[in-house]
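User: Please predict the structure of the protein below. I'd like the answer in structure-token form so I can feed it into my own downstream comparison script.

Assistant: Understood. Taking the following sequence of 253 residues as input:
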Amino acid sequence: MSAAPVLWQFRFSHFNEKARWALDWKGIPHVRRALVPGMHIPRVVWMTGQKQVPVLVIDGTAIADSTRIIEALERMQPDPPLYPRDETLRRRALALEDFFDEELGPHIRRAFFHDVLPDSDWAAGALTLGFDAATRRLYRAFFPGIRAIMRRDMRIDAAGAELGRAKVRSALDRIEAELGPGGYLAGDAFSVADLAAAALLAPYITPPEFPYQPPSPLPAPAAHFRATLAERPAFRWAEEIYRRHRGRSAEIP
């Protein structure tokens, strides 16, 4: 009998949420191993030769990148599907997934962290969700240095944040333009396109179905930008996709 897949993750991360959601949607029992952002690098580089999470280990093979993880899960367990069976719809779903990965994911992260990093208590608390008190205290003590590294590595500055906000609005435009009459982006059923769009919007949606709830309330700059989006049809659509399809966790306790 094969060992259960192991997901190496940041709890508070939209790309990690994308991989988690796929595992849960398919009901694949898996183990989750949470990492502390910044301290994760030696382990992840050792496993994959790069430093990004999520990483899913299946039968000893480490797969990095949420898109590649979902592709592997579709091969491993085709049902319930995230890729439409119809070839035309499948190409559409994959093209939309790629759009949200490239044109939303990195940019919403840059805008969001620009808004929240100045609030050291909130940001350090969000990045250490679920860890013991000693780890959280230590991370908070070192957070000014961690914040500087994050800003450098992710090019978090005022110009990047403004571009990020524009990209978020453009992604909402794309969702509103692409939605079909059934309320999905690729055909009449939930697919990887819907999952990617909703998961990557999660930092500002803050849906109650997100498995690791951040501190409340959001810092004021993030809350203000969220308020400018909240009445958009695509924003409300993403909230509804979470309500209808986020489902139960398949994590092995």
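That's the full token string. The chain is about 60% helix and 5% strand.
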